[in-house]
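Technical annex, item 7. During the second reporting period the consortium partners agreed on a shared format for inverse folding records so that results from different sites could be compared directly. Each record opens with the tokenized structure and is followed by the designed sequence. A conforming record, contributed by the partner at site C, is shown below for reference.
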């Protein structure tokens, strides 16, 4: 309720009390007057107020004490009652009674309105309100007015689909802000009459450090509330609320739509505005920490965040300085460019006695960089390496770290204590149990023109001796040209050909020549991709392994089967192998295991060193463009 409404309610209550008091007094008077109207008229003495200078007759003066008390009682009654009550013998009798008796017989409801304003509890409360309370009340009024103005009449969305989606998101955020403050009776959270509250200072501290998590709060400025008036305080309150929502939505993956980058159907868990405000409003001094919790909790994200801070703190200038030309560098050589190379590749210089030494650690980082960028030379720093490091990309490493941090926001917050992860640019699968990596293996992923999709699902079962149902796209693009030249194309290669609803259906029976090898791991999904064995095992020796049509070929698949089925459950590698031969054998998983097909071109290894990988699908570049890096 607004402050003005409360004042109106207080005044209305006082008027009601007066009317009620009059009803108690006037009703008996009217009854007595009606009764005495039937009796002979009696001599009446009437007390009439006199001016102070007027003299009184002797008979009136004889009754002066009673008249004085009666006058006092009359003056204490409400003016409206004195003006409207009719004169009657009973009324006069009451006036002529001693003051003590008259007061005792007066109904309590008559005396209540006669209290002085200072004695009225409601009036006393309003007149003794502290300046701080009055300022908070004013703040509530301003917040109420400002939030009411946030919601505009709903109209038909205009513009592109992206613009319409942005309009809907903005409206949803504003509705959440209105509901949040309405639930608090418009009480501020971040500011008070004295400036920022403890919660406000905590929130401002976190918002000011948004760049630590590579977030970009363009609309945030640190509030200066010294000597601020009510308008400025209310404005700061709402501005901080809007910035907090912006931070949390960015932190939880709302800045870049993964689907705009490529074949990515990962679904970020973008925080809802109402949930954001509920999470940060209650903790007080921990409000900033609760806001930071909307960033990914994963160790991989935190490691990249730490490396970003190190890069900015230790090498603010070197990280963007151009590396000059010079001779090729090999392990053991010294050169003035080595500190710049360390800075550009994120190699920590701690513990190094000679900063100019091109040592094993620097050479290893150069080898990773060369491999990721398709540069020959191994761990040797060549002119091509230097051109890639500084040729028009002065902030390459920082941008690479930030774009990979952004992709961590697309993953589920809970990836599973036991999980399977395939990092596509790293060509590797790993199985983690209770925070410990228990298995790794090389993989072959999709070609750039047939990329392996990025998404999360759950592995449900595996199949030994699988059929390969050839996708229609492969039949059309790769098999039909051969069939056109050789009608025996399918038969000679052992394919089974049928038709279904007028469409050719081709499948390859189980066997050593089967494209899926002897086993496949199933997590049914919209992309129809899975992990599987392969008869072309020699390709695992290659450094660049993007050869498939989208599925993921796994090295040592029977070992992976033992890991996911559980040796303790009786599924040893040998037992799974014993099923090879004959028809398909489906084995359900004892428990479904989350699986994540990821795309990270930068990550921190177990030794704390940044690893860089080739951007085989161009996703890093696209994310950097979307972020304006």
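Designed sequence (site C submission):
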């Amino acid at each position: 309720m607004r402050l003005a409404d409360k004042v109106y309610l207080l005044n209305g209550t006082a008027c009601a009390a007066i009317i009620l008091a009059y009803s108690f007094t006037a009703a008996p008077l009217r009854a007595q007057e009606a009764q005495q109207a039937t009796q002979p008229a009696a001599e009446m003495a009437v007390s009439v107020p006199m001016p102070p200078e007027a003299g009184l007759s002797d008979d009136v003066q004889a009754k002066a004490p009673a008249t004085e008390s009666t006058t006092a009682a009359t003056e204490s009654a409400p003016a409206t009652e004195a003006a409207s009550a009719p004169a009657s013998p009973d009324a006069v009798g009451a006036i002529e009674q001693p003051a003590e008796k008259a007061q005792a017989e007066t109904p309590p409801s008559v005396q209540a309105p006669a209290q002085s304003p200072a004695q009225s509890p409601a009036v006393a409360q309003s007149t003794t309100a502290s300046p701080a309370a009055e300022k908070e009340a004013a703040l509530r009024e301003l917040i109420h007015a400002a939030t009411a103005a946030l919601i505009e009449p709903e109209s038909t969305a205009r513009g592109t689909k992206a613009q319409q989606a942005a309009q809907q998101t903005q409206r949803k955020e504003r509705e959440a802000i209105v509901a949040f403050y309405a639930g608090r009776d418009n009480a501020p959270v971040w500011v008070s009459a004295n400036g920022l509250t403890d919660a406000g200072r905590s929130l401002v501290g976190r918002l000011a450090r948004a760049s630590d998590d590579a977030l970009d709060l363009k609309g945030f400025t640190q509030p200066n509330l010294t000597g601020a008036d009510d308008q400025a305080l209310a404005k700061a309150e709402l501005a901080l609320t809007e910035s907090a929502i912006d931070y949390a939505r960015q932190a939880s993956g709302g800045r870049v739509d993964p689907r705009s980058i490529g074949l990515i159907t990962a679904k970020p868990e973008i925080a809802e505005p109402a949930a954001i405000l509920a999470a940060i409003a209650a903790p007080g001094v921990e409000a900033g920490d609760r806001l930071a919790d909307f960033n990914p909790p994963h160790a991989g994200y935190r490691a990249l965040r730490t490396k970003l801070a190190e890069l900015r703190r230790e090498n603010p200038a070197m990280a963007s300085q151009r590396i000059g030309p010079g001779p090729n560098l090999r392990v053991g050589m010294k050169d003035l460019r080595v500190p710049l190379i360390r800075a550009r590749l994120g190699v920590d210089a701690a513990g190094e006695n000679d900063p100019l030494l091109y040592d094993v650690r620097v050479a290893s980082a150069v080898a990773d960089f060369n491999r990721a960028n398709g540069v020959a030379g191994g761990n040797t720093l060549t002119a091509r390496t230097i051109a890639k490091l500084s040729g028009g990309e002065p902030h390459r490493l920082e941008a690479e770290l930030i774009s990979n941090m952004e992709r961590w926001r697309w993953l589920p917050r809970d990836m599973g204590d036991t999980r399977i992860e395939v990092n596509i640019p790293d060509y590797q699968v790993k199985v983690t149990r209770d925070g410990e990596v228990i298995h790794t293996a090389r993989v072959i992923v999709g070609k750039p023109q047939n990329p392996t999709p990025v998404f999360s699902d759950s592995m449900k079962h595996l199949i030994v001796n699988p059929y390969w149902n050839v996708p229609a796209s492969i039949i059309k693009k790769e098999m039909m040209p051969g069939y056109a030249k050789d009608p025996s194309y399918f038969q000679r290669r052992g394919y089974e050909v049928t038709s279904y609803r007028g469409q050719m259906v081709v499948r390859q029976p189980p066997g050593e020549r089967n494209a899926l090898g002897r086993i496949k791991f199933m997590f049914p999904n919209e992309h129809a991709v899975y992990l599987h064995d392969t008869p072309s095992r020699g390709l695992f020796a290659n450094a660049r392994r993007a050869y498939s049509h989208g599925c993921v070929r796994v090295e040592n698949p029977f070992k992976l089967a033992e890991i996911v089925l559980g040796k303790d459950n009786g599924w040893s590698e040998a037992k799974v192998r014993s099923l090879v031969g004959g028809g398909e054998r489906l084995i359900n998983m004892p428990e479904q295991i989350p699986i994540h097909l990821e795309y990270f071109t930068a990550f921190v290894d177990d030794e704390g060193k940044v690893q860089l990988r080739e951007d085989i699908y161009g996703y890093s570049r696209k994310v950097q463009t979307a972020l304006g890096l």
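Residues 157 and 167 are 7 Å apart (CA to CA). The two ends are 48 Å apart (CA to CA). All partners now use this format for quarterly exchanges.
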